[in-house]
Structure formats: structure tokens, C-alpha cells
Amino acid sequence: MSHKRIKERTYLNKLISFIVGLVVGYLIYLFIFSMFTNGDEIPDFYSNLSIMFSLITMLAYIIISEFNYLKKLELTTNALHSNISIYKKREKDLLSKAEEIITKFLYHESDIQKSVASSREGSAVKSGVEGEILSISDLRLTVESYPDLKSDTHISTILSQLEESQNTILNSKLLYNEYVTYYNSTIVNVPAIIFLEMWKLESLEFYHDTDINE
């Protein structure tokens, strides 16, 4: 799975864009004003006016561009957080599917069935939620204990998908926190910090696991 990397805007990039924009703007305004003058020479008044208009234009552009960039960055960061919930929901669905397969597969093995039921009850007591599905560690322990179950292709496929899902969730959490770090540091720098309240920019919280088994 590919992750969208942060498109950072450094002070050097901003400075280069500002200088280039200032020069281009000056030439454009100078050309416009030259259309209203007679002769080959442009009065200093129009030249100074071109500089002033170019400066105002670039300042307005920087402010608008920074606002749009930060809002887009905020939306992207929030979307990454939502994606984590989606990936975790998929992981739970896979666990539920694995539990269903195990129950059917070991239906006639009463001693194993009791072991699975006991594992379910232990998980429920542990988490404080009745009917909690098997954790990944419980699932692997059960599969490793019974060779016939371990050789089942459906279980092998689900275990492979769960491993991939865990890696995806981990990478998503790391990427989200990376975005949060960059966003929080960007909004306290110029020019964003000047318009912090006006733009309603607030620091985002890092992702913390509430369940040690996640």
C-alpha cells in the first residue's frame, strides 16, 4: 500500500516563489502602465507604482496560498485518521470471520470447542466486553495448537490478510502522526501564526492506542 507523502513548503521555496512572483508582477504592471504613457521612457511614478502593486499582489497571494495549503493539509490529516478506523474495522471483520470458520471447523471436537469457548470468555473478561471476538494473538495460539486447523487454506488466507492489515494500520498510524507533527509546527510559523485565530487553526492530537493489544 502506498502512502501520500507530505508536500513540504520550506522557507527557501517560499522565498524563491516570492522573488520570482515579485519580478514577474512588476514587469506585468509596468507593461500595463506603459500603455498609458507617451514616449519611450516610463516615468518613475509608474515604476514605483508597479513595485507597490506587485508587492501587494504577492503578499495577498502568499496569504491566500498559505491558508489553502493549511486547510488542505488539515483535511488530509483528518482523512488519515479516519482511514485508521476503517483499517481497524476490516481487521475486526477478519477476526470475526476467522472465529466463525474455527467454530465450524472444530464443531465436532468437543474438547477443542471448549478451549475456543474458554478463550472467548477469557478475552471478554479481559476486555470487559461480553462476546468480544478473538484477538489476533488468541487466533494464532489456537491455530498453532491444532495442525489440522493450521493447514486449512481459509485460515491461512485470513492470517495472511491479518498480518497485512496490521502492517497497514501501523504504517497509517505513523504517517498520521508524521502529518500531525508537520501541521502543528507549520501553524506556529509565519505567516500562519499571524492569522491563527482568524483562520481558526488548532493543533491536532497525535494518535495514541487505547488498547495495548491493538
From TrEMBL:
Q: Where in the cell is it found?
A: Membrane
Pfam families (UniProt xref): LemA
The record's principal subcellular location, in a coarse class, is membrane
Q: Name one GO cellular component term.
A: membrane
InterPro entries for the chain: LemA-like_dom_sf (IPR023353), MamQ_LemA (IPR007156)
For this protein, the record's SUPFAM superfamilies field holds: LemA-like
The reply to whether Transmembrane figures as a keyword in the UniProt entry is yes
Ranges annotated as spanning the membrane = 12-33, 45-64
As for membrane topology, the entry says: Single-pass membrane protein
Entry annotated with the keyword Transport:
no
Q: Which UniProt keywords apply?
A: Membrane, Transmembrane, Transmembrane helix
UniProt similarity note: Belongs to the LemA family.
**The protein's name:** LemA family protein
